[in-house]
């Protein structure tokens, strides 16, 4: 369990809605590509319905706002490419380093 600074929690709560709006904008562009491709309307409909159902589960769309889940939420946001490590530059060095270390570990583990 990580206990990050109060300023990290406050900053996360401030930045999350902006990150989510940006992420949902990205999703909307991807949905437009689905709708504009050459396919039967029913195929496009069901593909889009499936995507939306999956995307609604993403932290980039909706997050459980608990301080104890902040690190997990940040990792999910990075995994979904809703944010990048650089987006954490304003956070404490402790949080930034922790996220960086976890990502490095995951990358080494997946090789």
Characterize the structure shown.
With 111 residues, this protein is mainly α. The chain has one domain (6-106). 66% of the residues lie in helices and 0% in strands. The chain has helices at residues 6-36, 41-55, 70-79, 93-109. It is elongated. The mean pLDDT is 93.
Topology record:
Layout: H1 6-36, H2 41-55, H3 70-79, H4 93-109
Helix pairs in contact: 1-2
What descriptive keywords fit this protein?
0% strand; mainly alpha; 66% helix; 4 helices; 111 residues
Concise summary:
The protein is mainly alpha-helical. The chain has helices at 6-36, 41-55, 70-79, 93-109.
Radius of gyration, in Å, reads: 17 Å
What is the typical, i.e. mean, pLDDT?
Answer: 93
Label the structural class: mainly alpha
Report the total helices. Answer: 4
Separation, N- and C-terminal Cα atoms: 26 Å
Beta-strand content: under 5%
Number of strands: 0
Q: Number of domains in the coordinates?
A: 1
- Pattern of helices and strands: HHHH
